[in-house]
Hints:
Elements lengths: L9 H4 L7 E2 L3 H5 L4 E7 L13 E8 L1 E6 L2 E6 L3 E4 L5 E5 L6 E8 L2 H11 L9 E5 L10 H20 L4 E6 L5 H10 L3 H18 L6 E3 L6 H14 L4 E10 L4 E2 L5 E4 L8 E2 L2 E2 L12 E5 L7 E11 L4 H9 L5 H11 L5 E3 L1 E2 L6 E3 L8 E4 L5 H13 L2 H8 L2 E7 L3 H15 L8 E5 L2 E3 L2 E2 L10 H4 L5 H10 L7 E3 L1 H31 L11 H20 L7 H22 L7 H21 L4 H10 L39
Parallel strand pairs: 9-10, 9-23, 10-11, 23-24, 25-27
Antiparallel strand pairs: 1-2, 2-8, 3-6, 3-8, 4-5, 4-7, 12-13, 12-18, 14-17, 15-16, 18-19, 20-22, 21-22, 25-26
Helix pairs in contact: 5-6, 7-10, 15-17, 15-18, 16-17, 16-18, 17-18, 18-19
Amino acid sequence: MIVSEVPRELADLARADFVRSVAPQWAQAADAPFNVRRVTLRPGEITAEHNHHDLEVWVMLDGSGEVTWDGRRRVITAGDSVYLPPLAPHTLRNLSGDRPLSFFSLWWESLPALAAVHAERQVVERQGRPVLLLPSFPTPNGELHLGHLSGPFLNADACRRALLAAGERAALLLGTVGHQSQVSAAAQAEGVSFHELAERNTDAITEGLTAASVEWDVFVRPSEPAYPAMATAVFESLRDRGVLVRRTEPTNFCEPCDRFLLEAFVAGRCPHCGSDQTAGIECELCALPYHDRDLVDPSCSTCGTAAVQRPLTRYFLPLEPLRDRLTDYLRGTAMHGRLRAYVERVLAKPLPDLPVSIPAEHGIPIHVEDAEGPAGQRMYSAFELTARFLVALDGLTGGWESYARRENPRTVLFFGFDNAFLRAFAFPAVLGAFTDALALPEALVCNDFYLLDGEKFSTGRKHAVWLREAAGSANADQLRLYLAATSPDVRRRDFTAQGYAEFVTGELIGRWQGLLDDVGGRIAERFGGTAPEAGGWHAEAERFYGQIKELASAATLDYLPGRFKPRAVVAAVSTLVRQAEDFAEVSADATPGSGLARTCAALELMAVRTLAMAITPLAPEAGGRIAAALGEDAIALDATPRWVRSGAGIKFPTDLFDHDTTIARGLK
């Protein structure tokens, strides 16, 4: 007999031989056909969210806890057992404040079970709740370039179109950032007022987005009259409830300019990675947050003078007291692997305080009582994000709070990796502290920088392809498709004029348009220009149908906010086009007028229809023209491929894409 004891008291955790996770003494002797460990959680401790391909069972030995599995929660106590199928993220929290929680974790591998669960997870479940898509609002210190479009704006627009095509309710909330020091610095350099520059650039931003076929449901301008009151309401609520703190600390200061050096007015190197790409309170390169005073070799970005330290009283939002809530939220939120690794890096250290007020000329006024330094300050732009969201939601619904409680909307954020801290930590912290009417964002869609000829797009250095000059009605679709095909969805990727030209002429015109021309020609020649009804099948037809299904499944799944990856959709379309080329060689041998010939032609039309369905969120004009050629007003996004109606007249457009691949690169 072998007995393995279980820690039951706090004193057991202090024993020299205590181990948090260990195989019981009988495990090796039993030679069981599964793995097993005894795990003990301290009071309040939670396991790191994880998933795996194994099947797992937890057997509760002592204590009580809360298990989360794929977003579901359940309280369990000693004697309970929990089966955890593969792939779904799960955690266990000890609910006790004074008693350990101990359990057996048993796991084993079953590839058939893994395959079955994987298949189940490919089925899309529509929730019926409206989806609010919130890309990072652009800063109106300049107009947009292709680097901007390739990230949050194209992604949010494509996601909105896909959700609507799938029958969901979705709205894209957009605007420009209200008050950022980058706008102040740019206005100072141009010799114009803050609001003149912000409004002028906002006009240019909306023109560029329209030229690129980006649609929105509401747009909040810098001059939006409801905005200051909303921002002030958020600030006063958190201040009056003691969520904010007022603190005096040494702050970078430029003596020649007589200015505290914050945001765009300070230069220095990141204390984490040494990069000089610092802005605000997070590094553009590593994205890790830092305190203003921790910048290495800080200096004035205006005159270059080395900074000195002067005391300054400001408001802050401490994030460390919100750690548990932020941890629970982030570990249950959909995001790609790189962002999740970043989140865990931030959570591994004490969370920084979020500045709420700064000395600045422009912005929402905040009075700091008993201040050292200026008492009249302005709201920090990152703290404003919640108010911008609520004003946009007000503009969409006429009343954000009643709408939120009635509809319980889902929210999805789209942002660049350099803004990961502000979107993943700061925004949910402020929103969650202000109201419980809105659920925190359920998915975080993050992209890295898009490069131009191997270097970062830069408004300041004029190294850019400006959106208003590059995009237009003739080429918006193909530009969007190329940006999606080369999307910096996880890592940096490069835009080159040569790559764009080769993609358009070789892939879009040479193969995609070529497929339409070939299929349309065969339908005209063999079936009088009308869609046939399928007849008999052979092995090649079955294989091709399966390949069409793969594209339909990819499009349905990879536009979902929780696993958004349009680059994968473009790749899947290109794959099906090549498979259709191969299938055409088979269909050419079918006896004219036979059932097999009809099936081959009907499958080719199904493939074209599925292609149109897949590309419409990215190329709405091209997708719409193909749908019209198939006799449909629009094609719903569906994982099940559909036939083209037999008898429908078929005549595909021959000019789906523009042969002119010139990209204007102007200086502004």
